[in-house]
Write a structure and sequence with these properties.
49 residues; 63% helix; mainly alpha; elongated
Length: 49
């Protein structure tokens, strides 16, 4: 029983790493910024960065 409790997080971690590898291989992402809030200083700062 103790072995199963030790192996469960390791298997979950392996599954997580495998899924991250698959999703990053699909393609590039595009990040868009919306104009819903006029005068938003954070938005202007992000565009200029």
């Amino acid at each position: 029983m103790k072995t199963y409790l030790t192996m469960a997080p390791l298997l979950a971690g392996a599954a997580l790493l495998a899924s991250v590898g698959v999703s990053s291989a699909e393609g590039k992402y595009t990040i868009g910024i919306s104009n819903t809030v006029q005068g938003n200083g954070w938005r202007e700062e992000m565009i200029c960065a």
